[in-house]
Design goal:
82 residues, alpha+beta, 3-stranded mixed beta sheet, two-stranded antiparallel ribbon, 5 strands
């Protein structure tokens, strides 16, 4: 868990890359989705050759909800960039 823009977000780093490459960030669908199903299926295959970041967005999965109702369209982008 890490706090981003006032909300605790769940994330997981997994896998490895044999070559220098940026990680792949998995963003679940929503609202209220999570990354577990993808991680246990296709994610396991991708982790063999890629560095994966599973990121659960605010108010979804194991991440906390925004107590101030901060769900503007730009907010998830700001969270991810942080």
């Amino acid at each position: 868990m890490t706090a981003l823009n006032g909300v605790r977000h769940w994330y997981k780093l997994a896998g490895r890359s044999a070559r220098p490459a940026p990680p792949v960030v998995f963003l679940h669908g929503g609202p209220g989705g999570e990354s577990y199903t993808f991680e246990m299926s296709a994610g396991r295959y991708l982790e063999r050759s890629l560095r994966m970041v599973y990121f659960e967005q605010r108010g979804s999965g194991r991440s906390d909800r925004a107590s101030d109702g901060g769900y503007a369209i730009a907010t998830p982008v700001e969270d991810l960039e942080a």
